[in-house]
């Protein structure tokens, strides 16, 4: 039959649309299967890369992705990652979310077992380019000033930007962004202090004997 | 016989997607804060445009006019999703830069426009040439807009090019103005409109100069008429 006549028929049109959708769906399903593994791999590599930025190499020798735990935080369920060195828990890494000037600021906060910050990095944000984006380590060293700080240094009242009477610098023209980040780091530190026993208890016991080592990491000095 | 010179001239200059058809402005404003981003977006769009033109041109006799738009959209959306998945899987660093904007290619009416205005009426080979010329035309337009905004806004050119093209192309990364304090508005979306506006002025000015010079010997042929969405 003539194609030009066929094209006008309703059943032909429905069939064509159905076939096109089926073929494209099959293609997408195939592509999804093929790319799922590499995408997960890329995400995992990216996480490991981020971890290595907040934790110095000499502080851990495990794969943090294999040592993830779940805990209920006041702001919702939280996944945390334990870093350990020779079986002792040396630090805990939290993904945190601050409410910035233009949406969520996703960051990683790593706290050593003694309560000191090992490092903080911003992973994703939508802050104003040129003003709020100084929170990226690639643009400004500001975020590295948190390394070594704890709830004792400065004391909790000092955990604010200078404009609010605290100890941390804000940026010229951008106060909301640093304020949100300082508050979020303080929240992580307070949460760590409150939940320390749980957070420092190994989520996965080492294969070898000696699971009591978890307590050795706790050296609070207050 | 198809006039390939005409196709090339249309795609690259006289009927350029951005500077003449004024299509694709949504991704243009969103992505072109740097020349590298413009290049990445241009190449991704070129890939989708080529695929869409090829498929639609091959199937053009089978697609009923009554349902052509949904068929085109399904095909284009599939290609964009495939591109998105492939970049995510095999060029993750680039995905972190461009990821948000790749989905925007679906709503880029320029691609639907080419399918409707060209691929649905022309042979496979002509459609391939057309999509390449239109895609390259779009890419250079995005690179130029991105370059202008980047130099004025941040004082650099092709920053992060190694993420897109690999380490060997790191030499493209130039700091044009050292110790530049930045000109924020050019990086933000309004800067996109300003840059496009001035570049349009420049293109019209060049066109007029060319026309004046050619007027005496013989008048320039009219460009191929376009009906695009």
UniProtKB/TrEMBL annotation, chain A:
It is an enzyme of class 7 (translocase). It is found in: Cell inner membrane. The chain crosses the membrane at residues 12-32. One of its GO terms (biological process) is electron transport chain. Its main location: membrane. SMART domains: FMN_bind (SM00900). Residues 100-192 form the FMN-binding domain. InterPro entries: FMN-bd, Ion_transpt_RnfG/RsxG. Part of a membrane-bound complex that couples electron transfer with translocation of ions across the membrane. This is Ion-translocating oxidoreductase complex subunit G. The lineage of its organism: Bacteria, Pseudomonadati, Pseudomonadota, Gammaproteobacteria, Oceanospirillales.
From TrEMBL, chain B:
This is Ion-translocating oxidoreductase complex subunit E. InterPro entries: NqrDE/RnfAE (IPR003667), RnfE (IPR010968). The lineage of its organism: Bacteria, Pseudomonadati, Pseudomonadota, Gammaproteobacteria, Oceanospirillales. It is found in: Cell inner membrane; Endomembrane system. Pfam families: Rnf-Nqr. One of its GO terms (cellular component) is plasma membrane. The complex is composed of six subunits: RnfA, RnfB, RnfC, RnfD, RnfE and RnfG. It is a multi-pass membrane protein. GO terms for biological process: electron transport chain.
